[in-house]
């Protein structure tokens, strides 16, 4: 099964089970992917998280039932997996800007989020500059945190981690320790598929041969074949745009797959707000 077909199969599975409690692990298994890689690919391509997609679809269907049937609000709350009518009403109002009672009385407009169909752009009108490289194992040193994939905690908390390392001086310390081939500060995602399928380790680190510096830890990155993408432009927009191109254009049109080992974002020690800022994305291949 191809990459695009796997993703669409997972979306179909979500649609078929909107009235059931399903986890990211369940959905990722359908796509033959780890939780982390499925969640990341989905959010990059759609600009929403898996959890947000499920919530929006359920509340869209609930709104249709409110308008077209006389089903009690308490029964709809239970049907669409809310513990109480109050929780359902709060979520409903947040999405539709009106209460369930107002919707039933046709007071106000509803928002409908339709079933998602993945459409991949394979034209490649805008060229992507990349290089395939073989690299021996190397060490990084930095700070590590474990993030849960449940309720998209990793998507919310990793940006806060970056804010903290800039504020407390850790970013400057890492730049001073950088003595390897990769220059700058690295964002390193480690998929814990084998040990903790619902968690990832995220490192903010640098390529360095140092072993012990304060509270910093070391991580060995295995020898691998890498695809290295150039990223041109200010952060974070340029990085997000390139990730979207990688998953919507590059992977579907190449025979490679993600190897499942750590992936890197490389941020040189220059002004990330500069329109000409240069950075890189390193993805291990198999």
Notes on the structure:
InterPro entries: AraC_E-bd, Cass2, Homeodomain-like_sf, HTH_AraC, MarA-like, Reg_factor_effector_dom_sf. It holds the Pfam family Cass2. GO terms for molecular function: DNA-binding transcription factor activity; sequence-specific DNA binding. This is AraC family transcriptional regulator. It comes from Robertmurraya kyonggiensis. With 286 residues, the protein is α+β, with helices and mostly antiparallel strands. It has 2 domains: 3-104, Arc Repressor Mutant, subunit A (Orthogonal Bundle); 130-285, Regulatory factor, effector binding domain (Multidrug-efflux Transporter 1 Regulator Bmrr, Chain A), CATH 3.20.80.10. Helix content is 40%, strand content 21%. It is built from 10 helices and 8 strands. The chain has helices spanning 3-16, 24-30, 35-46, 50-68, 73-79, 85-96, 100-104, 153-167, 170-177, 237-250; strands at 130-135, 138-148, 185-191, 199-207, 217-221, 224-232, 263-267, 278-285. The chain has an 8-stranded antiparallel sheet with strand order 1-6-8-7-3-4-2-5. Helix 2 packs across helix 3 (35-46) and helix 5 (73-79) crosses helix 6. The longest helix is centred in the N-terminal third of the chain and has 19 residues, at 50-68. The model has no long low-confidence stretch (mean pLDDT 90).
């Amino acid at each position: 099964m191809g990459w695009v077909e796997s993703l669409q199969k997972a979306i179909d599975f979500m649609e078929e089970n909107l009235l059931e409690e399903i986890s990211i692990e369940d959905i990722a298994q359908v796509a033959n992917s780890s939780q982390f890689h499925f969640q990341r690919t989905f959010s990059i391509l759609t600009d929403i998280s898996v959890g947000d997609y499920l919530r929006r679809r359920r509340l869209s269907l609930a709104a249709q039932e409110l308008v077209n049937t006389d089903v009690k609000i308490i029964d709809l709350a239970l049907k669409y997996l809310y513990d109480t009518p109050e929780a359902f009403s709060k979520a409903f109002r947040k999405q539709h800007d009106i209460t369930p009672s107002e919707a039933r009385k046709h007071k106000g407009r509803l928002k409908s989020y339709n079933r998602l169909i993945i459409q991949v752009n394979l034209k490649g009108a805008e060229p992507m500059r990349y290089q395939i490289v073989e690299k021996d194992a190397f060490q990084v040193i930095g700070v590590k945190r474990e993030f849960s994939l449940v309720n998209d905690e990793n998507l919310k908390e990793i940006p806060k981690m970056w804010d903290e390392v800039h504020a407390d001086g850790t970013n400057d310390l890492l730049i001073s320790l950088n003595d390897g081939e990769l220059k700058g500060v690295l964002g390193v995602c480690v998929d814990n598929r084998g040990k903790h399928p619902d968690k990832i380790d995220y490192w903010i680190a640098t390529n360095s041969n140092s072993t012990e510096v304060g509270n910093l830890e070391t991580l060995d990155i295995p020898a691998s074949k890498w695809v290295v993408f150039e990223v041109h432009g200010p952060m974070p927009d340029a990085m997000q745009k390139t990730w979207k191109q990688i998953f919507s254009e590059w992977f579907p049109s190449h025979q490679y797959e993600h190897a499942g080992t750590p992936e890197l974002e490389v941020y040189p020690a220059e002004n990330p707000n500069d329109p000409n800022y240069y950075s890189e994305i390193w993805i291990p291949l198999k």
